[in-house]
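Thread: Newbie trying to understand structure tokens

Hi all, I'm a second-year student working on a class project, and my supervisor (Dr. K.) asked me to get a predicted structure for one chain before our next meeting. I've only ever worked with sequences, so writing a 3D structure as a token string is new to me. If someone could post the tokens and maybe explain what I'm looking at, I'd be very grateful. Here's the chain:
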Amino acid sequence: MEHLIQHFRKDEQPFIEQVVGWQREVEDRYAPKLTDFLDPRQRFIVMAIVGQVDDLQVKSTGIFDTAERERLMIAPNYFDALMEDFQIAIFRVNYPAKFVQLKHPDVLGALLSLGIDRSKFGDIRIAENTIQFAVAKEVADYVRANLTSIGKVKVHIEELGEQAPLIQLEEQWVEQLVLISSMRLDVVIATVLNISRQKSQSLVTSGRVKINWTVREHVSFELQEGDIASVRGFGRFKVLMTEGRTKKDKIRLQIGRLEQKS
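---
Reply by user tm_fold:
Sure, no problem. This is what the structure looks like when written as tokens:
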């Protein structure tokens, strides 16, 4: 356990302990464990811990194609997980789209205002006049009964059947290799976004940078594999992997860049 924790951040320790608890539970009961929806960084941590155990497997889905948030099934190797085992419902939001435009933060805000934890919700997808979102089945009835408005707009939600068409993401992650002197947040942002170090530092200190959905305001924060950075006004990028160092001691860093649609 100790050698594992040193690879992760201090503020990730409670989650790491939770993951180790899930692993032990599966090993002791020899029965599968279903998690709530986890973001990519949390899934990376689960794979780093449970992925090392020979007789356990980890499967995941968020139902949507290339879902950002997924539920994981930690299970003995012999267990064959079916889609229904993940207990995810997909809802469509019906609203007067002719008169009003709803955005991602509006929908997320309305869901969170129901008093349900973010971990019970998966991706929220919006395309033209259609809104769909994923939710853990254990809270689906409650959401169906209580989500009657988003902002000031009256809405009606309905659960979609398994064969219903789901919104596909139009966005593209473009992979690129960058050479950087260190994994410090200000250095990586300056290099990836091709801006000055000074500009990158002011973006960080002014609270415009989120790493894995958490605002980070320290320029010396160290990025790690699996991190997703979101820089307000510049879009997002993922830290895919480090590929060693050059002769001049620069780090070769593989990143995925999500270009912002204008």
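A couple of things are worth pointing out once you decode it. The chain has a mean pLDDT of 91. The longest helix spans residues 13-29. Feel free to ask follow-ups in this thread.
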